[in-house]
UniProtKB/TrEMBL annotation, chain A:
Belongs to the binding-protein-dependent transport system permease family. The lineage of its organism: Bacteria, Bacillati, Actinomycetota, Actinomycetes, Kitasatosporales. This is ABC transporter permease. PANTHER family: DIPEPTIDE TRANSPORT SYSTEM PERMEASE PROTEIN DPPB-RELATED. The chain crosses the membrane at residues 12-30, 104-124, 136-157, 177-198, 237-258, 278-300. It is found in: Cell membrane. It comes from Actinacidiphila acididurans. It comes from the Bacteria. Keywords: Cell membrane, Membrane, Transmembrane, Transmembrane helix, Transport. InterPro entries: BPD_transp_1_N, MetI-like, MetI-like_sf. It is a multi-pass membrane protein. Residues 100-301 form the ABC transmembrane type-1 domain. Its main location: membrane.
From TrEMBL, chain B:
It comes from Actinacidiphila acididurans. Keywords: ATP-binding, Nucleotide-binding, Transport. GO terms for molecular function: ATP binding. This is ABC transporter ATP-binding protein. It holds the Pfam family ABC_tran. Gene3D superfamilies: P-loop containing nucleotide triphosphate hydrolases (3.40.50.300).
Length: 318, 564
């Protein structure tokens, strides 16, 4: 177990370093002079004087050799200093910390909803004896996957906010403001979870050990929940780990559609203004989220399936 | 064992709905099992015997339905009982021992929990009591250290141990009838005997009736009071064991009996005496030097006749990273030789290292140490193009023709693939060659356009053999080539292999766990156990006077010896 943990931790650190390095490479090495872009602040670069760019270049250490820049910035990043926003001069970490809670609320709400909804559809669809209900439930996921996030968001706003006035369409005031964005973000994720879970449940229910359970006199419910669910839970769980990283990307669209403050909005703004330190900060935040959820998922796997970690060899004799 | 039957099946008809329409699987059978009686239902796959087992336990697969007839069990008709009645019987009065122990236990639950489950389902005990009882049941099923086993997960147990766990589950609620669906066909012969002995003892002591479903007449002969022979959904013959096996009345039963490769089967003996491999003219070979010969001393063969020589082959599988233990020795200093035109059989249980040895001989696995000499050339360290050229001369026929043929290729493509790989001939020549190859394995050319799924198991294995022969190899490695097939297909494939050996003068390494099969096909046999080659010698000699204690045990464990 300790070995497994250490290896996972090492992998996590490596992923973070790789994310930092790649984003550094992309953002600092691409054509276009960062200092000019910064000085223009998203505006027209022709109005920038040479003195201004030189001053900026010096201030941000851009006149140093690239390797040195990389080393200093990485060192700072390790100590939790991701630099300052070019636009506002506020430290990037501060900016992210401010925007994080609303996005975290949104993401957590969406993932929870996706899990509950997705599992419910998969379980009901796999256990019902009514053929039409099974067909209906199991065709929902493909529909959900193919519907684009922004479109779902717009439809929801149109119906539930403008037409029926149940939930507010904008802002971040209280729980009711969370509902629509969370649902929008959750639907495609729920569809994916339902699809994968239903498939793995179908596989598990066809396994011979299910036959053994039935031969013991177990009821359908006991077979489904007592035997199939746990065996079928690893693929959807792995999917959840992967999707948690994607929720940030989804947040960019959803927060824009619903005019909600948060990481998504910050990202959109930073990209428009070419605020390199903030963009890199967001990339690293995404990597951290991804690494943490993957780590959590990896740690849950052996709890669900003992074969993943126990290394005891099968005994020889009967 | 007289009086009212416990299970009385009358005119039972079962069919499956498929896309191609309704397919009858069981066509009006009658069968009864008295209390405490062991009845064997024998037949090949597709005969409908497993369908009967499923119907009795009320677990017909999707699409299967009982169309007519009755199955009276202890006064209730199972064919008409509703789901909750069946649920009350399953695991309570009818126990099931399933076919494949490797996949029949829930992999994520502890063994003890799974054994206790029937007691909890049928409210025969509360949880703590059921847990205690589970340990006792595991002990009764013959597991040493039952308390420890109860805490383990299935993957930590061997196949035999898992089957014992399944026996404990089936016996947990003290049923009156046990349906054993090929309970040991996935196990090694020595384990098989212990398991069958144990099922026999437990059911006899408790007066439990057994419906034993098997394709193995030997097993039926040893274990059952009465035998029913099933073919194409009908029971063609039924009666006391001795009567059916000694004087079978139905031609199908006679055919089935004749197809069983017996240890002392007259047909097999005849073939061995009369049909000794005729060596075909062989190209001159470089003789081995003396050192090579001394390394494999103890065999009177001449150097020029040796096709493959293995010297002190060792294969160690490294332990997982982070484990302190050193690796496992799968093959431990095995030295053997195969002469041109000769068939050497390797026998042993699964895990004894016979497949690994074969894989090293044909360089599919690299040995940890030792040498392989093929046709006078040391091939142990060949790689790249040289190794690829060598592949032309050694081919493998694998165990399962269901897994070894690509389902998306036509038979013509499969058979001519080796030719394409070595760019031999034009397209037209290759297609002619494919026809010739099919002819060689006695398949009609009409099959060339078909896909493997449209062929039977026996036909598929012929295709696999044709593919192996495509390049005209000198060495053919057959890794359990008939163990996935029915007895009658088995007999046909074995006949084909014997004829091919005689016609082509192939050197052949034949791996099998079935001693009777070995007797029919090989001239020499090597017995492997725990990675070591215990003894080698001419088949008759090894079988008649086994030198090693393990060989004696192996021979004694073959089912059906008492019947013949």
């Amino acid at each position: 177990m300790r070995h497994y943990l250490l290896r996972r931790l090492f992998q996590a650190v490596f992923v973070l370093w790789a994310a930092y390095t790649v984003s550094f490479g992309v953002l600092y090495l691409l054509p276009g002079d960062p200092a000019t872009i910064m000085a223009a602040g998203g505006g027209d670069a022709t109005t920038v004087t040479r003195e201004q760019t030189d001053a900026l270049r010096h201030q941000y250490g851009l006149d140093q050799p690239l390797a040195e820049q990389y080393a200093t910035r990485l060192l700072h990043a390790v100590h939790g200093d991701l630099g300052r926003s070019v636009q506002s001069g506020v430290p990037v970490t501060h900016l992210l910390r401010q925007a994080l809670p609303t996005t975290a609320q949104l993401a957590a709400g969406a993932m929870l909803l996706a899990l509950v909804l997705g599992s419910a559809v998969a379980l009901l669809g796999s256990s019902t004896r009514r053929r039409w209900l099974r067909q209906l439930l199991l065709s929902l996921p493909s529909l959900g996957v193919s519907a684009p996030t922004f479109w779902v968001g717009l439809v929801l706003v149109q119906l539930l906010s403008f037409h029926w006035r149940i939930f507010p369409a904008f802002g971040d005031e209280g729980f009711s403001a969370l509902v629509l964005p969370a649902v929008t973000l959750a639907l495609p994720a729920a569809a994916l979870i339902a699809q994968v879970f239903a498939k793995s449940l179908r596989t598990a229910l066809a396994e011979p050990y299910i036959q053994t359970a039935l031969a013991k006199g177990a009821s359908r419910r006991r077979v489904l929940f007592g035997h199939a669910v746990r065996n079928a839970s690893i693929p959807p769980l792995t999917l959840v780990g992967i999707m948690a990283g994607n929720v940030l990307a989804g947040a960019v669209v959803v927060e824009t559609v619903f005019a909600r403050p948060g990481i998504g909005r910050e990202t959109a703004a930073a990209v428009t203004a070419q605020d390199i330190p903030v963009v890199q900060g967001v990339v690293i935040l995404g990597a951290v989220t991804f690494v943490l959820t993957s780590l959590a998922v990896d740690l849950v796997h052996p709890l669900l399936d003992p074969r993943i970690i126990t290394t005891t060899r099968p005994a020889v004799a009967a | 064992m007289t009086g009212e039957p416990l299970l009385d099946i009358r005119d039972l008809r079962i069919s499956y709905r498929t896309r191609a329409g309704t397919v009858p699987a069981v066509r009006g059978i009658g069968l009864s099992v008295l209390p405490g009686e062991v009845v064997a239902l024998v037949g090949e796959s597709g005969s409908g015997k497993s369908t009967v087992a499923h119907a009795v336990t009320g677990l017909l697969p999707r699409g299967g339905s009982v169309d007519a007839g009755s199955m009276t069990f202890a006064g209730a008709d199972l064919a008409r009982a509703d789901e909750s009645t069946l649920r009350g019987l399953r695991g309570r009065t009818i126990g099931l021992i399933p076919q494949d122990p490797m996949v029949s236990l829930n992999p994520v639950q502890r063994v003890g929990h799974q054994v206790a489950e029937p007691l909890i389902i049928h409210r025969l005990a509360d949880r703590p009591a059921a847990r205690r009882r589970a340990v006792e049941l595991l002990q009764e099923a013959g597991l040493a250290e039952p308390a420890q086993v109860a805490r383990q997960y299935p993957h930590e147990l061997s196949g035999g141990m898992r089957q014992r766990v399944l026996i404990a589950i089936a016996l947990a609620a003290r049923p009156r009838l046990i349906v054993a669906d090929e309970p040991t066909s996935a196990l090694d012969v020595t384990v098989q005997r212990k398991i069958l002995d144990h099922i026999g003892t437990l059911t006899r002591e408790r007066g439990i009736a057994v419906l034993l479903i098997t394709h193995d007449l030997g097993v039926a002969a040893d274990r059952a009071h009465r035998v029913a022979v099933m073919s194409r959904g009908e029971i063609v013959e039924t009666g006391p064991v001795r009567q059916v096996l000694d004087s079978p009345r139905h031609p199908y039963t006679r055919g089935l009996l004749a197809a069983v490769p017996g240890l002392g089967h007259p047909g097999a003996a005849l073939r061995e005496n009369g049909g000794a491999p005729r060596p075909r003219p062989v190209p001159a070979v470089t003789p081995l030097d003396d050192r090579d010969l001394s390394a494999v001393a103890g065999n009177p063969a001449t150097a020029s006749g040796d096709l493959v020589v293995a010297e002190d082959l060792v294969k160690e599988f490294s332990a997982r990273r982070g484990e302190r233990r050193t690796g496992r020795r799968a093959v431990d200093s095995v030295s053997l030789r195969i002469r041109r035109g000769e068939t050497l059989a390797l026998v042993g249980e699964s895990g004894s290292g016979k497949s690994t040895t074969a894989r090293m001989l044909v360089r599919l696995t690299d040995p940890t140490s030792g040498r392989v000499i093929f046709d006078g050339q040391d091939i142990t360290h060949l790689d790249g193009g040289e190794l690829r050229r060598l592949r032309r001369r050694m081919q493998v026929v694998h165990q399962s023709p269901y897994a070894s043929l690509s389902p998306r290729m036509s038979i013509a493509e499969i058979v001519s693939e080796p030719l394409r790989a070595f760019r031999i001939g034009t397209r037209a020549e290759r297609s002619r060659q494919a026809t010739a190859l099919l002819d060689q394995v006695r398949l009609p050319a009409a099959l060339l356009g078909r896909r493997p799924a449209e062929l039977s198991g026996g036909q598929r294995q012929r295709v696999a053999i044709a593919r192996a022969l495509a390049l005209g190899p000198d060495l053919l490695v057959c890794d359990e080539p008939v163990s996935a097939l029915d007895v009658s297909s088995q007999a046909q494939i074995l006949d084909l292999l014997v004829d091919l050996q005689n016609d082509l003068g192939l050197g052949c390494l034949f791996i099998s766990h079935d001693l009777a099969v070995v007797r029919q096909i090989a001239s020499r046999v090597g017995v492997m156990h725990q990675g070591k080659l215990l003894e080698t010698g001419p088949v008759e000699k090894v079988f008649a006077s086994p030198f090693h204690a393990y060989t004696q045990e192996l021979l004694a464990a073959v089912p059906g010896r008492s019947a013949r």
